[in-house]
From TrEMBL:
This protein's name: Cryptic autophosphorylating protein tyrosine kinase Etk
Pfam family, one: GNVR
Membrane spanning residue stretches: 36-54, 456-477
Tagged with keyword Cell cycle: no
GO molecular function, one term: protein tyrosine kinase activity
Any one cellular-component term (Gene Ontology): plasma membrane
Length: 508
């Protein structure tokens, strides 16, 4: 729903159901033109008055070079657009900027200029007094002057450069210039105090301690080499490795020999279980049969050979088979041979006795082989221990060399610090610092604040936009009845007649 002006009868607004149009907006602006004009003039007047009543602020600028080593340097290199600074150099520049903005440096500048100079009203020329003419002030006033100085101080550094740009804004151009000059001098003095390096007893003592540690490490390394013959250490290590390899081969053979003796003992023990220590013997009481006796003796010899052969050769070997065939033939011949009268008697079993002797001999050989294996293992253990000792000695040697290297590095660093401190002490006595004034503080009588043109233009824009916005808000919230349609819609009553305001005034 929107509203448009009425006709000449001054019934101003007719409500319609169509959307708000440009014509409606222009009608609203026309109806409230005096309100817009009043708001516009008020805003512009207030901003203009405030702008012209604001105190003028002047700026003094300077450029410093901070953090370069105190050596003669070409000014073109210092003023280069970009310099490849490392992290330490960047931190040195940042630390210098922090010192410049410290309250200590600002306080020294305030003490030189005088705290009262910062509280003089605009339009009054500052009095640049001599140090003896400066009157003492309270602590609160001095701190207030420091706050004023720091609030107008601005520092910025160029990327990857030693150059620092300084800006100081104050209400008087000459005071800004003199304050910035004094501030730079106070910072230079403070920088000298912080960077003052004297060849003090501390540096000399550190150098002496580093030299003593270096001598101790060198002596320890020398004694170690003499004690363990470090020159022959590598040769000893090679010889021990060769001996260890030979012992490994001999231990392998000895283990195989011990295993063979163990298997043979087990085989003899199994064979021995088949025979008893004693056996039954036959005694002829009748007519003797010499042929049978010879066969028995031959059979006994063959069985003895069979036992010995089976203990040394497998059962399927040719030699064992031949002996078994001979035994079978002798037994077959004895079976057909007539016997005589015999008497039974017991005696030593020769087979058992021979097997027992072989078993004892084999056990003795097994013990000898096992003892040899233990000796070889003991020798190998000794060699491995010596190798371990050599490895430990090598590690100790490396540690001693590393300690000597660190001690030597520390000694040279302390020596360099001592030399640098002596050089810096000479530079300090000559007044040479790493702070250089590239551009001194400037004196400019052109104020940087307030910007009158900008403020007035902003006031005009704000007045127009604010006035237009206010009248649209007023029109939006205006719920008065100005037309017959308003009466019909809101009161639900018919309109009998309409009288314009002019006619109504004439009737009165």
């Amino acid at each position: 729903m929107s509203s448009i002006p009425c006709s000449e009868d001054n019934s101003r607004i007719i409500e319609t159901d169509h959307a708000y149009s440009v014509r409606d907006a222009l009608n609203v602006l026309f109806c409230h033109k005096w309100k817009i004009s009043l708001f516009f003039l008020t805003v512009v007047s207030m901003i203009t008055i405030i702008t012209y009543r604001m105190p003028y602020v002047y700026m003094s600028e300077a450029r410093l070079q901070i953090g370069v080593e105190r050596d003669p340097t070409d000014i073109a290199e210092i003023l280069a657009p970009e310099q490849n600074l490392n992290q330490g150099q960047v931190e040195r520049v940042n630390n210098g900027m922090a010192v410049f903005k410290s309250r200590l440096v600002a306080g020294r500048a305030v003490d030189v200029i005088g705290a009262l100079q910062f509280f003089r009203k605009p339009g009054h020329k500052p009095l640049l007094l001599k140090p003896e003419e400066i009157k003492p002030v309270s602590w609160e006033m001095r701190e207030g002057a420091i706050d004023i100085l720091l609030s107008g101080l601005s520092l910025s550094s160029k990327p990857r450069s030693y150059i620092v740009e300084i800006e100081l804004s104050m209400k008087d151009p000459e005071l800004a210039q003199s304050t910035l000059d004094t501030l730079i001098k106070a910072y230079t003095k403070r920088h000298l105090e912080l960077s003052k390096a004297q060849a003090s007893d501390v540096f000399a003592n550190n150098l002496k301690l580093a030299s003593g540690r270096l001598e101790l490490t060198e002596e320890a390394l020398h004694q170690f080499r003499l004690k363990y013959q470090v020159a022959d250490m590598e040769q000893q290590k090679k010889m021990l490795i060769i001996r260890n390899s030979g012992l490994l081969e001999r231990i392998t053979l000895a283990q195989a020999d011990v295993a063979a003796h163990r298997d043979k003992i087990k085989s003899l023990e199994n064979s021995l279980k088949q025979y008893k220590p004693t056996m039954l013997l036959e005694k002829i009481t009748g007519r003797a049969n010499n042929t049978l006796e010879v066969m028995k003796s031959t059979l006994l010899q063959l069985k003895t050979q069979e036992v010995e052969t089976t203990s040394r050769y497998p059962d399927s070997s040719r030699r064992v088979n031949e002996i078994q065939e001979q035994i079978n033939r002798v037994e077959a011949a004895m079976a057909v041979e007539p016997g005589g009268r015999i008497e039974k008697r017991t005696g030593i079993n020769q087979i058992h006795q021979n097997l027992n002797l072989d078993l004892e001999s084999e056990k003795a050989e097994y013990q000898a082989a096992n003892a040899k294996l233990k000796d070889l293992r003991a020798s190998m253990m000794s060699i491995q221990q010596r190798l371990t000792g050599l490895v430990a000695q090598e590690m100790t040697l490396k540690r001693l060399k590393r300690d000597r290297k660190f001690a030597s590095k520390e000694f040279h660093e302390q020596k360099e610090i001592m030399q640098r401190s002596e050089n810096y002490a000479a530079l300090d006595r000559s007044g040479i610092t790493s702070v250089r004034v590239i551009e001194p503080a400037t004196l400019s009588y052109e104020s940087v604040s307030p910007n009158k043109k900008r403020n007035i233009v902003l006031g005009i824009i704000l007045g127009l936009i604010g006035g237009i916005g206010i009248v649209f808000v007023i029109d939006y919230f205006d719920d008065s009845m100005k037309t017959s349609e308003d009466v019909n819609r809101r009161l639900k009553l018919p309109v009998l007649a309409m009288i314009s305001s002019n006619e109504f005034e004439k009737c009165i």
